[in-house]
Design goal:
Length: 284
């Protein structure tokens, strides 16, 4: 909702201010069609050239995040901490083998079934279950597990950072492509030198719309879209950091509640449940 409101404010502020200054909005509307085709068409073409097929699919699948609410919430983080606490408690009570069936098929696990929101996050579930399998099948030292998780998270963060970087690069290209459109407009204007001042003035104005449109797309829309996606991906990555910290702490010998408390400290203060809130959730 905030994204749509922001877009409307940008359009209202830019074009409303132009009209209040006595500008003829139809001059821009008529020019935007042709200038926009040049800028957007060249932008999409350069985007396809710069991004191989696999990366292009990742970018497109993540673009919808702009219009979706962030997954980061105090309730979501509390659910994750509660799930980890239940897993650690079962392991401490019944041994590592006791969670083997839960890890092999989380969709049929009574532990995971209580947290439908987490269960629907397939990447996060794979991260949790894969590393629990490592803990079950190997006698890995805490520092070795820490290094392994760092490698996993580095690869994950690199992949999830591609959409924001690629879209931001696209936005940076729009001012230059706007100049291309403006130059083409000037070329057309030079062919009208024998026309009257009104025709030349409108033609020059239409050419300048290209520069205007390129800059507006870059700083008003595409750049903020990229930053929006980046923020939401960073929020999602907090879930992985919680799992890493809690797992390493538990494997290092910490009690389930201490391991979960370590994970709680990895949550930004704006979404971190208090000690009392987490304790109340664990009691339930």
């Amino acid at each position: 909702m905030g994204v749509i409101v922001g877009m409307l404010i940008i359009l209202g502020g830019v074009f409303g201010g132009f009209m209040l200054e006595g500008g003829n909005i139809m001059v821009i509307v008529r020019a935007i069609g042709n200038e926009g085709m040049i800028i957007v068409g060249a932008g999409i073409g350069s985007f396809l050239i710069a991004n191989p097929g696999g990366i292009f699919k990742i970018v497109m699948s993540n673009f919808k995040k702009v219009f979706q609410p962030s997954t980061a919430s105090k309730a979501g983080f509390t659910d994750l901490l509660s799930l980890l606490y239940m897993i650690f408690t079962k392991i401490r009570k019944d041994g590592l083998i006791s969670v083997e069936e839960d890890v092999d098929d989380p969709s049929k696990s009574a532990l995971f079934a209580k947290y439908k929101g987490l269960l629907s996050n397939h990447h996060l579930m794979s991260f949790i279950t894969d590393n629990l399998k490592v803990i079950i099948t190997t006698n890995m030292a805490p520092h070795e597990l820490d290094n392994l998780l760092d490698i996993d998270l580095e690869a994950h963060h690199h992949e999830t950072g591609l959409p924001s970087t690629s879209i931001n690069t696209l936005g940076d290209s729009f001012p230059g492509l706007g100049i291309v459109a403006a130059v083409l407009g000037v070329v057309l204007t030079m062919g009208k030198m024998s026309e009257g001042p009104e025709v030349l003035g409108e033609s020059i104005g239409a050419a300048l719309v290209g520069t205007f449109l390129g800059i507006l797309l870059c700083y008003g829309f595409v750049g903020p879209f990229a930053q929006n996606i980046g923020h939401k991906i960073n929020d999602e990555n907090v879930f992985y950091s919680i799992v890493k910290v809690a797992l390493v702490s538990f494997v290092g010998g910490a009690a389930p509640q201490i391991a979960v408390e370590s994970g709680r400290r990895a949550i930004p203060s704006s979404h971190r449940p208090s000690f009392g809130e987490l304790e109340q959730a664990l009691r339930k």
